[in-house]
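Worked example 3 (structure in, sequence out).
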């Protein structure tokens, strides 16, 4: 081969190498910009990515199947090339969320509400509501519709009345004899019964007991369950339901925990060693971050596939879907 041809080949290789290098740099920069555009303003992205070939074992069975592991696991097993982000939460952000415990001393406020809907416009034909505007969190409203349809299909009844949500009448002749400060946040439903044109207090018995037994499948819990007064401070109130989301409700039902017990239980789990759970054949990992400062620093997976709730005490609960 002549010297001229050799020089041309060398020059061609140099330009080819330069082109690959430039392309790689542009690709990396585009990927970085993609990550940055998905992160809130004050998040720091860390690059110690994890690579695990293990998957969290999922249960089999019906569409409402669930399984648990009480052992802490390696941080987010089954998620490939996982990094994490750091950001800060204010005390106000820790004080509200789907798992927040509200009391008379630390009540819910209208500002704690998420996206609300008028139940009169959203309800289906399987239950009634009191007159006037009845506001409810949109996710809770959707779950309520699905639950009441299933109840009607199982029992042949459509006799429930949503007697209160953000506010409940508790005066003389009330059918829900107590109101709760947590209702203002928009996640609660107070139920009564329509018996041949007469309104009755719901006691959780008979065919209507289906709601108490099955509400967890739709993300609701009996907020003040039987035998838990020492934890909740209230007697059994089968008529007062609280929406906490399907995964949290399933864990609480499986472990027979009230909300206070559940939040106490989660305190032992961290980002490094989260709690593992499966629901509808999907794997979840949950952990708690606590602190007494005015701002709480926490970590979340860089994927952004997570939900966050304050507990209105001193912690935030983070749930990651694998």
């Amino acid at each position: 081969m002549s010297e001229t041809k050799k020089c041309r080949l060398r020059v061609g290789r140099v330009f080819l190498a330069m082109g690959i290098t430039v392309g790689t740099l542009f690709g990396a920069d585009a990927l970085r910009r993609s990550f940055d555009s998905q992160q809130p303003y004050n998040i720091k992205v860390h690059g110690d990515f994890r690579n695990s070939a293990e998957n969290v074992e999922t249960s089999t069975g019906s569409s409402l199947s669930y399984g648990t592991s009480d052992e802490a696991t390696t941080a987010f097993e089954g998620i490939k090339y996982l990094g994490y982000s750091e950001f800060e939460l204010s005390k106000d952000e820790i004080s509200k969320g789907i798992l927040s415990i509200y009391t008379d001393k630390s009540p819910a406020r209208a500002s704690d509400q998420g996206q609300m809907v008028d139940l009169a416009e959203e309800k289906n034909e399987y239950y009634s509501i009191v007159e006037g505007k009845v506001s409810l969190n949109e996710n809770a409203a959707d779950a309520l519709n699905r639950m009441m349809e299933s109840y009607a299909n199982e029992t042949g009844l459509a006799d429930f009345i949503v007697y209160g949500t953000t506010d409940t009448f508790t005066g003389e002749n009330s059918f829900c004899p107590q109101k709760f400060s947590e209702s203002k946040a928009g996640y609660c439903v107070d139920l009564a019964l329509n018996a041949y044109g007469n309104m009755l207090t719901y006691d959780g018995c008979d065919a209507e007991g289906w709601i108490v037994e099955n509400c967890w499948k739709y993300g609701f819990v009996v907020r003040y369950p039987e035998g838990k007064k020492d934890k909740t401070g209230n007697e059994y109130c089968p008529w007062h339901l609280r929406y906490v989301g399907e995964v949290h409700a399933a864990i609480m039902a499986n472990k027979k925990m009230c909300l206070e017990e559940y939040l106490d239980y989660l305190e032992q789990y961290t980002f490094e060693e989260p709690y593992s759970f499966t629901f509808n054949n999907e794997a979840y990992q949950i952990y708690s971050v606590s602190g007494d400062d005015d701002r709480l620093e926490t970590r979340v997976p860089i994927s952004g596939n997570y939900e966050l709730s304050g507990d209105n005490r001193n912690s935030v609960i983070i749930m990651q879907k694998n």
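Notes: The chain is about 25% helix and 25% strand. The radius of gyration is 26 Å.
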